[in-house]
Amino acid sequence: MEKPILLRAQPNGMIGVVGGGIAGLVAARELRERGREVQVFEAGNALGGLAATTPTAGDPVGRVPLTLSADDDAVADLADELGIADRLKSRDIRRGQYVDGVAHSRTRLSEKLAFPRLSLQDKLFERLLAGGVSLGPVGPPTDALDAPETYDDVPALAFVDDHATASVREQVVEPHLRAAFGERAEVISAAWLLGDLARRRADSNRSTDSIVYPEGGFATLGDALIAGVGRENVSLGARVVGLETTGGDDAAAPAASDGEGDETGFVWNDGDAEADGGDATVEAVDATATESDQRVERLLVERDGERTAVDVDAVVFATPPRALERATGYEWTGETRSLVSVLFGLSASLLDTYELTVADDAPFGRLVEHTNAVDPAAYDGDHLLYAVAPVADQRDERWQQDDDTVARRWGDSLEALFPDFDRQTIQWSTVTRVRDAGPVYEIGSRETVIEHDLADTVAKGCFYAGTASEAQYPNWTVDGAVRAGRRCATLAAVPKSDRK
């Protein structure tokens, strides 16, 4: 193989950031604020990661449904720094469940009481569980929603059996878990469920639920971050394939590019169908054998078929764990989940709720009518509906089918679920596949959390702010991405000579 071109960093030491999602952009901006030279390496052709957007006739909108919570303090602080705090808007919503051919709204107390699949006793236990309320022996432990990580080793379904009823588990919690994790629902930890309930509790009152969504979409946040980083400090289509260190052997043998890998895990369209993640082989690092004086020296970056060695003072990986493994040899024992999302542009509204968990047979587990939270006028009058499915195995036909087939068949399912739905209202559709949408938060998944500082397992000067990081346990959130990016920027900003 041709020897890579070597690019020398400036004397103050450049810091590489791998991955151009929210965590990576936050880390890069923070480092720039601290006066450090930064370069962001994004393997794909777009920034944003899970917050990436697609154009509409009006404002851009997310490729997958993504929202914020009223408790997202890290996002609120960042928005204030960026001057966009006034664009974070709280929006009232309603959630529901589709079962037995009927869409039931289940937000207001009266709606919950009317739900036919639960008895009055079941509904009491469901309310106690959702609110984290303990009535002596009845309901969840008092600390459950405040310290969900305590229940990492407890199966979510077993927790519900112990602290609610079998009907609450079967009729409410199981459909919710299947909508998020598909066939992995039975192995999900109670820590994830309780973390999810805690976020919902923060955004709920007697009459309505709420979300926080930026005016102008997540492009508002992304554009402000990119401005803080500087476009000139971002390299698109730049795949980090290896990490070289001093004080020992390379942390990872440079992997030959197979043309299949990227750090985001996104497959934007059929033309990118082979870009959903590589299986390049790297030489794994034995954590017990890592030399204490091993330090990050340079990154090996592939772009347009050319490999370049880039000197760095430190590196922040803001990627799914698979990309970290591929570049450094770090061995991660967890699993990630994939998802397929179809965004339909409709000429008329379909749902009475913002979000609908689909318990009946369908190729998707969740419907989100985005324009039941945001005025359709923001999208030139189009009503935007997401249909989302978790995919555990990429041999799944929903992953393998081309975009037209997925959109057509999922449109067929909408007709089957809603007899009054007029197929002619579908004006356009966009299909997005995300290979690594986040960890599968299985029982015991706390053991798979990747620490922010990888000095002991990879090399000094290597940091991790990705989807499996400490800040993203026990739930992946945008707020967690911001916290991870900030934390790693603080660590990476320490001068190389001062790192212990």
UniProtKB/TrEMBL annotation:
Q: Which PANTHER family match?
A: PROTOPORPHYRINOGEN OXIDASE
Pfam name, any one: Amino_oxidase
Ranges for the Amine oxidase domain? 22-259, 303-490
Q: Could you name the domain of life of the organism this protein comes from?
A: Archaea
| Name of the protein this chain belongs to | Protoporphyrinogen oxidase
Q: Which residue stretches, if any, does this entry annotate as coiled coil?
A: none
| Record-level Gene Ontology MF annotations | oxidoreductase activity
